[in-house]
Amino acid sequence: MKTPTEKKPTERQIRRRENILAAARELITERGYDGVTMRDLAEASGVAPKTLYHQFENKEKLLRAAVEERFRSAYQQIDEADIARGIDRLFYIIDTVGTTTRDNMAYAKALGPILSSRRSKSSEVFTRIRMNTYRRAIEQIHSESEFVDWVDVDLLSAIVYRQVNPILTSSWFLKTPGDVTTMVVKLDLCLILASVTTGYTHRKVIATAKKLQKTLKGSPYV
User: Fold this and answer.
1) CA–CA dist 85, 10 (Å, integer)
2) pLDDT by 10s per residue, the chain, length 222
3) What pTM did the predictor assign?
4) Angle (CA) 70 92 63, round 5°
5) What is the DSSP secondary structure assignment for residue 197, as one 8-state letter?
6) Cβ(58)–Cβ(69) below 8 Å
7) Phi/psi at 62 (5° precision)
């Protein structure tokens, strides 16, 4: 909550902040998360170094703001997609995350240290954002009454996230074609969900698993 002494940022200040964060994301892509300096950031964004320190305090907070802003925006767009069925939403998430990672490989690779590291609380923020998105799909399936009655939604959501997240990373994409990566993720989840779903969801995961099994059989990447 704002205090009476806080002022609303001007349009100029908002644009300057956006320019700084955009420049930070470009430098992260080019040099890696740990290869960016405040001097580089100041030069790339056209401001004095003291401006950066005044607004963000230090490099870690500036880069974290740049990454988190884009991360939240990307997952918000996924969350807002109007998808009728929960299993279709889950597959949509996997496809979208896979495509985004593949299309922005240099950036995704550069973010590896911050997204997987336990060195700061920032990784916890990103984990929470991603987990909430997958959980929404699982909760949608639950709201459709297509889980067997003994399923623990909290536990299943965590299992789905833990299954998907390690595979949909830049390191795996570097070694494996992106379409194979997303197919493997879907097949894994279909095999998990087949035993605990009913109705439309069950039919969809069985049909998808059969199709993917035929496609992936004999693949040198599996």
Assistant:
1) 42
2) 455 556 777 888 888 899 999 999 999 888 888 888 999 999 998 899 898 998 898 988 898 888 888 889 989 999 999 999 999 999 999 999 888 888 887 777 777 666 665 545 657 888 888 899 999 999 999 999 999 999 999 999 999 998 887 776 666 666 777 688 889 899 999 999 999 999 999 999 999 999 999 999 877 766
3) 0.84
4) 15
5) B
6) no
7) -65, -50
